[in-house]
Predict the 3D structure of the following.
Amino acid sequence: MGFTEKQEGLVKESWEVLKQDIPHFSLRFFSLILEIAPGAKNMFSFLRESEEIPQNNPKLKAHAVKVFKMTCESAIQLREKGEVVVADTTLKYLGTVHVKSGVKDPHFEVVKEALIRTIEEAIGEEKWNEEMKNAWGEAYDQLAEAIKAEMKNHH
Ligand code: HEM
């Protein structure tokens, strides 16, 4: 089953909601990552340096926004082309950055869970549903697979 126009719409629609308050949702996203996997703290340069999660840190926001935005782009590509294609240079960079930071395959599940829960909170109980969850999940999984495959070339 391909990615449908409806699924793409659900992802785009919820991204519009997240965009309304990037500082808040970025912070929430990282809090959830550390709640699920406290050990992840030491991988992020901007988290290693302080006891608490820094408010308004540009690097923290950059990572959160990259994950959200690239997942969104994946959804669009899945619908248009049936697969996720990340530009070669971007993918090489992502492979290097993550291997260097000590990221391992299971971390992608942690980030997925945090991503889904952040969106759920942003959308609110009334509008949130399984379809939305699955659309984000599928778009994220395909992107994560591409990054993980690239990471194998950087050992
Ligand atoms: C860095 C994207 C998943 C940990 C980065 C950068 C990008 C990125 C673009 C470079 C940031 C920059 O140079 O501004 C993504 C995407 C992901 C993903 C799209 C999933 C689809 C993960 C996961 C982890 C992780 C699962 C581990 C929990 C890191 C770390 C850095 C990084 C530690 C270095 C940040 C720093 O210390 O400044 N990521 N990432 N990422 N990513 Fe990810």
Notes: The chain has one domain: 5-154. The two ends are 34 Å apart (CA to CA).
